[in-house]
Design a protein that fits this description.
With 472 residues, this protein is an alpha/beta fold. The chain has nine helices and 19 strands. Helix 3 runs parallel beside helix 4.
């Protein structure tokens, strides 16, 4: 069942763009010039480059999310026994830095020990050595040397257990503000839903069948209605039936067509090129090119240039660990920061008006919002207005019914209005501020691409000044 949007926590909506404001300071006063655009200089939530979690950065790269893998054996030790402590500690650690997590649960990560819980390997009777044991295949590809093992994904006990796990995961974590995005994982090498080179047309073929894929997709779709999900790629047309985005893990290397098997070709062949309009696109810059691409852009294959991939896929974020740990000279670091900034939404408040009035009449607020990024914002995050008096005290807070979701790059400016009721404010001089509320306590604030964007850590943007006069 396809959902229109997924919400993180409370109401309100997200936006991706820039906002400039036009303010009428008092009755009959001339309007100030439109608010000027200025790119956001620091990290904005849920977009940009991110590293693997827990790193010690070499470069001064801003970021708002951290990525990690976690094996299923760290989360489950029995058919109905879940051990969430390991996951919670990872999420708490990242949230403690004001960032949100992107993660993937894996069963089979080449060159690492198997992520399969022991009770699953023993089969439904729980006794190893019987004929109902889960088949686990050894392989030496991808630098594995037999350390990890590829399971038989058709095994009914394994399938049923994965469905139970996904249900429990959703019950506990759907809408958790510590989580930015969840990759489906679980099936295939690295949780990428493929077993290359043991794939269709080859003998043996270890690929999870379409029946298995449908079962896992359906389980995730039922379990998660607020946290956004991403699959590695559309494997078949039926992926369109589910509420999820995609992640291109060879970005700027095997993204654009030709050839047709590149990422863009897979989206095209399954009718998913417009998925970015409602669901997020993420991924990873191809690791082999990360050490040098910001120093020498020519290492990116011809036809796969970063800017072309950006405009074609409309991604919101990329795992780009090399930008954080490989020493970059100033020019390379500047290029990396700019490429990170270009991902996802960018909000510019283009105009604002405040019709200040007499104390017995309402104050009418108007604002216009524009998205100058490459993608929308996908979560319903609340917006908040606050009135500051002459002593710099907040005396009136309100969450207007302003929606930020669904504002696409190139769309006309979104127009907002709100009224503060009469007699709410006594006569005096005031400032009006706007912000988007990050549901993660202590989370990185969303900043607008405005020259007047306030420097405080809560992300407030000053819309303008106004006065309320005594009633006549």
């Amino acid at each position: 069942m396809k959902k229109n949007t997924k919400t993180f926590f409370p109401v309100t909506a997200f936006v991706g763009g820039i906002v400039a404001l036009l303010v009428s300071a008092t009755l009959a006063a001339p309007a100030t010039p439109p608010l000027a655009y200025s790119p956001v200089k620091t990290a904005n939530p849920l977009k940009g480059f991110m590293p693997f979690s827990g790193i010690h950065e070499t470069n001064d790269m801003p970021y708002s999310m951290e990525f990690f893998y976690i094996p299923l054996k760290d989360l489950m030790n029995g058919k109905e026994s879940f051990t969430w402590r390991n996951l919670d500690s990872r999420l708490d650690e990242i949230a403690g830095r004001g960032r949100q997590a992107v993660f993937r649960v894996s069963l089979d990560y080449p060159a690492q020990p198997s992520g399969m819980p022991d009770f699953l390997r023993d089969g439904p009777d729980g006794i190893r050595g019987n004929t109902d044991d889960l088949i686990m295949r050894s392989y030496n590809d991808h630098g594995n040397d037999g350390r990890s093992l590829s399971p038989d994904y058709s095994d009914q006990n394994l399938r049923n257990t994965l469905v139970r796990f996904i249900k429990a995961l959703g019950e506990r974590y759907d809408g958790d503000p510590r989580i930015g995005f969840l990759q489906l994982g679980l099936l295939g090498f690295w949780g990428e839903w493929h077993t290359h080179p043991y794939i269709g047309g080859k003998d043996p073929d270890w690929s999870p069948s379409q029946d298995v894929q449908k079962q896992i997709l359906s389980a995730f779709d039922k379990a998660f209605n607020r946290t956004m999900l991403l699959a590695r790629e559309p494997k078949a047309d039926f992926f369109r039936e589910y509420s999820l985005g995609y992640h291109d893990d060879s970005f700027a290397y095997q993204t654009l067509t030709p050839p047709g098997w590149h990422y863009q070709g897979k989206l095209t062949s399954h009718g998913e090129t417009e998925r970015w309009r409602t669901q997020p696109i993420g991924g990873e810059i191809r690791p082999e090119i990360q050490p040098d691409m910001w120093k020498d852009p020519s290492v990116v294959p011809s036809g796969q240039e970063y800017s072309l991939c950006l405009q074609a896929l409309h991604p919101s974020w990329m795992l780009a660990h090399g930008a954080f740990v490989h020493k970059l000279v100033p020019s390379a670091l500047k290029r990396a920061k700019e490429q990170s900034r270009q991902l996802g939404y960018e909000f510019h408040v283009s105009r604002a008006s405040i019709t200040a009035t007499l104390a017995d009449q309402p104050i009418v607020i108007g604002a216009s919002l524009r998205n100058t990024g490459v993608a929308p914002f996908y979560y319903d995050w609340p917006l908040e207005l606050t009135v500051i008096d002459a002593t710099d005290q907040r005396i009136h807070d309100v969450r207007p019914k302003w929606s930020l979701t669904g504002l696409l790059p190139g769309d006309p400016d979104r127009q907002w209005t709100h009224e503060i009721p009469a007699k709410t404010l006594p006569p005096g001089s005031y400032r009006l501020l706007l912000r988007v509320v990050n549901p993660l306590k202590g989370g990185i604030p969303l900043r607008f691409a405005n020259t007047l964007q306030d420097a405080n850590r809560d992300g407030w943007l000053t819309l303008g000044n106004f006065s309320v006069s005594p009633s006549r």
